[in-house]
Amino acid sequence: MSQSSSPRKKTGRRPGGADTRREVLEAARGEFAARGYQKASMRAIARAAGVDPALLHHYFGSKDRLFLAALEFPVDPRVMVEQVLAGDREGMGERLAAFVLRLWEEPAVRERLLALLRTAATTEEVAALMRGFMVTELVGRVAAGLDVERPELRVELVMSQIVGLAMARYVIGVEPLASTPAEELVPLLGRTVQLYLTAP
Amino acid sequence: MSQSSSPRKKTGRRPGGADTRREVLEAARGEFAARGYQKASMRAIARAAGVDPALLHHYFGSKDRLFLAALEFPVDPRVMVEQVLAGDREGMGERLAAFVLRLWEEPAVRERLLALLRTAATTEEVAALMRGFMVTELVGRVAAGLDVERPELRVELVMSQIVGLAMARYVIGVEPLASTPAEELVPLLGRTVQLYLTAP
């Protein structure tokens, strides 16, 4: 799932092997847990894993990618951000709603996202990590593309609606919401997202 | 907190004492867990607790009240429903938003609601119970007061936004959402609720 950026197939060398990857991800989880997303450094993770920082950059590119791999995020949220911001402003809400619901409807993705959500709901360290990542890598990026007051707050209200929909539809499973086809939810969710992102 | 309907002060007799109350609530939790909200019966709960069904009705009034007491709900959701539905339709969203945020801002209430949310997120039996209760006692009541297509779905979308806001603001604690004063959130949340409940 999150293995698409795996270095495994790219090289036969020991430093890029499955063991190294596992050690790096473990070191990353340790460093993120100990210092939080913002303060964790690629250099410290490389040191803990006993690999060269250059290798880390080579395989994971950047701290946010390493974070997504370490937490086994089944999707890169930045791809979503790009797709939503690229296009006409009037369609932003519906594009985001369609993208998010398509994702959640894939069983493997949903399973992993729900596991993350449950862990965040019960473990403060994980909640803090998610918070740090979201604020640094997601909220700011989307907010920068908006033309409203308090854009960060608006983006976070959208996130809250997405998290809540996931809880109500997939975790609590309340009916008729749980069995309503995703296509029918897109316009309703899209309208709300549009309101948050663009209404004065 | 949820002790306002406690029988303790109403009687000195053994059947209404604190021990009996505890036994009844324990029996209720057992019956609700075993049979779900809809199928659980007051009669079976009375039998399990070794008390007369009439006593149960006398002290708890109805199955939904007993359920709220057994799960230590810090608030009676039906009070909210009444307050929101009574009044002009244009103000419905903002009334609900103000009511919900005022509740969540009370530390003791918030603590208990979050505990319930966490348990529902991690324990399917509790999720099923919440689901049964919400659909039977809440969704239907609010939906009956609406004038839109698929009113149940609309009510559940509102619930999903409320749950998600609680997760984002109080559990994940993402900023600036977590520290924005509730008064500033009321119009933003209210507008969304209004959209779900009244827009065609």
UniProtKB/TrEMBL annotation, chains A, B:
Name of this chain's protein: TetR family transcriptional regulator
DNA-binding region of this protein: 41-60
Matching SUPFAM superfamilies: Homeodomain-like, Tetracyclin repressor-like, C-terminal domain
Keyword presence, Ion transport: no
Region (Disordered): 1-22
Keyword DNA-binding: yes
Keywords of this entry: DNA-binding
Lineage summary: Bacteria, Bacillati, Actinomycetota, Actinomycetes, Kitasatosporales
Domain of life: Bacteria
Domain HTH tetR-type: 18-78
One term of GO molecular function: DNA-binding transcription factor activity
